[in-house]
Amino acid sequence: MPKNRSLLAIFLVVFIDLLGFGVVLPLLPYYADRFGANAAVTGLLVASYAAAQFIATPILGRLSDRFGRRPILMLSIAGNVLGFGLLALANNLWLLFAARILAGLTGGNISVAQAYITDVTAPKDRARGLGMIGAAFGLGFIIGPVTGGLLNEVSPAAPALAAAGLSLLNLLMVGLWLPESLTADRRAELAQAGRPALTLGALLSALRRPLVGPLLNARFWFALAFALFQSVFSLYALYRFNLSARDTGFVLAYVGLLSVITQGGLIRPLTARFSDRQLLLGATVGMAVGLLGWAVAPSVGVLLGVLAPIAISGGIFNTVINSAISKAVPPVEVGGTLGIAAALESLTRVISPSVGGLMLSLFTPALPGLVSAALLAALLMYLLNVLKQPAPEPVL
Fold first, then answer.
1. Which domains does the chain have, with CATH numbers?
2. Are the C-beta atoms of 140 and 259 separated by less than 8 Å?
3. DSSP 7-19
4. How confident is the model at residue 206 (pLDDT cuts 50, 70, 90)?
């Protein structure tokens, strides 16, 4: 399969995967409410998915280094089919938790998709290829919630059944259309290089490496600041501007659209003109300014203006940091290391909902934005310190 067709195939895999996820995500509070769950239990339900992803994502990434990308993608998508099917059939709160935990354990395949991209692209084209993954991710989140809301009018189980059907379609597409990116020659090369042990210590050892550690640290702190924004934005919009659920959905769709444009169209010219280091620093500054503006926005019009640098900076940083990480490790460790990066992001989605909710309810709607901007100011100082000199490899 030509490289462009492979990129299109993996784009569709990620898009359908995230479309199914987006269909059910906004409806989880309503599922939980059917079984009498209070706000705290609903928060735990949302966090259980991210916690399961935190555990499973680096393992799936490392397994793809060992056994190939295609079989691990198929395994994880099959788990999605079962998880969404169980969600549709759940008749009590425990089954609801089981469905989300299963989906989280098998749904952390974004790192496998990213590793696939690194297999089929040259380093100079890496950010562009990973940008396609980000664009597919964003499109799924734009279309999915709207679709889920419409399906919920038909039946409470319809969104989960639709997500299971989409996952089944995805499984068939991978089985019939997507080739293995680790060829026989490539497998022989990786075998000769030696595969690292599949242990937690081996996975976390990347944090101590001179090049990879700073990039992973930056990935975590940037994601934490961004997750504070994502996790409380709907409540913020209600408390600060009394926006309806529909209006908030339109605002978030606007943010998603800007992110898709950035990752699908702007990344290529930006990476051709600027170094990874310049883009990471610039995106950190842009996100800090945007989040500070979010904290103090006096009107919806101003809010829409400050959301633009948030969306654009997030799209740039998330694409470039994954590209830089993939170029900072040996090919045999790309899947596992990208898995660690994705797991760290999942961890921020466990932390942020509870912390951000407390800030919003106990103090002021501005506090999550102020804290996020402060985190990014500290991250900027860190990056300026650790990325002073170009790396020996063409990473930054």
1. 3-174+209-386 (1.20.1250.20)
2. no
3. HHHHHHHHHHHHH
4. low
**Quick one: 197 exposed, middle or buried, by C-beta within 10 A (0-12, 13-18, 19+)?**
exposed
pLDDT tens sequence across 360-375: 767 778 888 899 999 9
Assess contact for 138 and 265: CB atoms under 8 A.
no
Distance CA 260, CA 131 (A): 9
Classify residue 179 by its DSSP letter: P
* 64-73: pLDDT as tens digits: 877 888 999 9
Tokens of residue 139, six digits: 């499109």
What distance lies between CA 268 and its chain's CA centroid? 20
| Alpha helices, DSSP H, located in the chain | 3-24, 28-34, 39-67, 69-89, 93-106, 110-120, 126-154, 158-177, 184-193, 200-204, 212-241, 245-261, 267-273, 276-296, 300-327, 334-362, 367-386
Q: CA-to-CA distance for 41 and 30, rounded, in angstroms? A: 12
C-beta of residue 112 within 8 angstroms of C-beta of residue 243? no
pTM of the model as a whole: 0.71
